[in-house]
What we know:
Elements lengths: L1 H24 L16 E5 L4 E4 L5 E6 L2 E9 L4 E2 L1 E3 L5 E4 L8 E9 L5 E10 L5 E3 L1 E3 L6 E2 L5 E5 L5 H8 L2 E6 L5 E4 L5 E5 L9 E7 L4 E3 L2 E3 L2 E8 L4 E6 L4 E6 L2 E7 L10 E6 L2 E9 L8 E9 L6 E4 L17 E3 L1 H10 L5 E5 L3 E2 L13 H4 L45
Parallel strand pairs: 2-9, 10-19, 12-20, 21-29, 24-30, 27-28
Antiparallel strand pairs: 1-3, 3-7, 4-5, 4-8, 6-7, 8-9, 11-13, 13-16, 14-17, 15-16, 17-20, 18-19, 21-22, 22-23, 24-29, 25-26, 26-27
Amino acid sequence: MILRRRAVLLLMMLMTAVPLVxxxxxxxxxxxxxxxxxxxxxxxxxxxxxxxxxxxxxxxxTTVSDGKISEVVLTDDKGVRVDGAxxxxxxxxxxxxxxxxRRTYTAQVTAKNDSGKTVTQRTTFTTxxxxxxxxxxxxxVQDKRTYGVAMPVTxxxxxxxxxxxxAGVQRRLLVSTDPPQPxxxxxxxxxxxxxxxxxxxxxxxxxxxxxxxLDGVPMGKGxxxxxxxxxxxxxxxxxxxxxxxNRTKQMSVFKDDKLIRKIPVSLGxxxxxTSSGKMVIMEKHESTIFDTTGSPDPYVVQVEDAxxxxxxxxxxxxxxxxxxxxxxxxxxxxxxxxxxxxxxxLMETTRIGDLVTxxxxxxxxxQGNGWTAWNVSWDEFVxxxxxxxxxxxxxxxxxxxxxANGGPPAADKASTPTPTPSNGGR
Length: 426
């Protein structure tokens, strides 16, 4: 019995020893790899430390990886903080106003990542002396105004902006809308006008906020922008379009795509033809003087209810002297003549920013002779941008030519005059 008990005990010992041997073959308990310690973001900023003679439009450039900018603090040499905000694309921090000349500023930029790690960099720089030359700028959007749905945002300059300076200028032109309707800035060939529009007309009721932050911006040839300009306005509640057909000598007025009035017109005679194209009402005058002294056919005349369409002097206006010709014959010096009653009605009905389309005359509208952003297709318009066009606003690639579509139509070609305002042709 004793031997049998010893055998049973030995067997039990062997059975309990087997797991220990197997466990030993695995090399012991598995250890989990430890996570790497969080690291701060990588940050680079501009201007470089101790930079000097910078334009007063200088921004704080930021490049960050593995994080986002959490704070930018810019102070002048008296410790006064400068207000500003990050650009929407995160490429830099833009002061809310131009910096002062001959002053030293310090920027402190902090970036933070999802792990809570931060990194901070500082830079100090000095702005340039007051420039000897300034480029005069003009913004067409004014505060508390209501415009038509074709109103382009236009900035004009008193001298040409060279091509190599246009991208820097364009980056300082800011538009926001409610509801959002993204658009593109495009330059006229002469470099004296740049316009912003969406692919289609503004939605009625849209609110526009524009900032042309051009004070101190390099404009080429040693010149700098004169000042910052802002405008907050609204688009009217209705879509109003005027269509003028030289063949019928009639103007059709549409409100929300419904014809509301037909008006007989007299356009420019063959020696002074009216331009065909898509233009926008730019000015409205209850009374003004047309003075063409120095032209081949000089005259000075007072006109009523005049609405400017081009820089070259084409208007819609009252012309009681041509009522007998309106609807049948062209006798004007390039303007669109209507009766006193119709001119008065138009003044009450239209807004600056309403689209006027004229067709069938002897000459085409010169691009840049007025607010001509709608006179070209979207595909043509965006070619005038000095900056890359956002992917969602790029034109669709043309369809291949074939029996179904025959390929895209050819674009109109037009010269670009200097947009010098003049008083018009009656």
